[in-house]
Design a protein that fits this description.
Blueprint lengths: L6 H5 L14 H10 L2 H15 L23 H16 L16
Length: 107
C-alpha cells in the first residue's frame, strides 16, 4: 500500500474553501472512473482503508512535495474527515467506482 495514493482525493481539496462544498455525485464518480483505471481506483481505496486505521497520521504531509498552487487550507483532522467521506463515496455501490472496469479517457 502506498500512502501517495491518497494524493488523488486530497488534490480535490485545493479546489474548495470549505468542506461543506464537497459534493460526491454521479458526475464526480464518472470523472474518477474515466480518469483512473480499476487498479488505480482500488489502490486509492486500499490507501483510504489504511487511513481509516491511522487517523493521527500527517495526511497534509503527503502533499509536501506535490505540484500544488498553494498551501492546503484544512487541518489534518479535516483532511482525515474528508478522506473518510471519500472512502464512503467509493464504497457506494450506486457509483460502481470499485467495480466499473471501463477504459480510461485521455483528458
Amino acid at each position: 500500500m502506498k500512502k501517495n495514493n491518497l494524493m488523488t482525493p486530497i488534490f480535490w481539496l485545493y479546489e474548495i474553501s470549505s468542506l461543506e462544498e464537497v459534493k460526491f455525485t454521479l458526475e464526480s464518480s464518472n470523472y474518477i472512473k474515466d480518469g483512473y483505471g480499476i487498479e488505480e481506483r482500488n489502490n486509492i481505496y486500499e490507501a483510504l482503508q489504511w487511513a481509516k486505521d491511522n487517523p493521527n497520521y500527517n495526511f497534509k504531509g503527503i502533499m509536501k512535495n506535490a505540484p500544488v498552487p498553494h498551501k492546503l487550507e484544512f487541518s489534518n483532522k479535516e483532511v482525515y474527515y474528508y478522506l473518510m467521506k471519500f472512502k464512503e463515496f467509493m464504497e457506494n455501490k450506486e457509483y460502481e467506482i470499485l467495480t466499473d472496469d471501463r477504459p480510461t479517457i485521455e483528458f
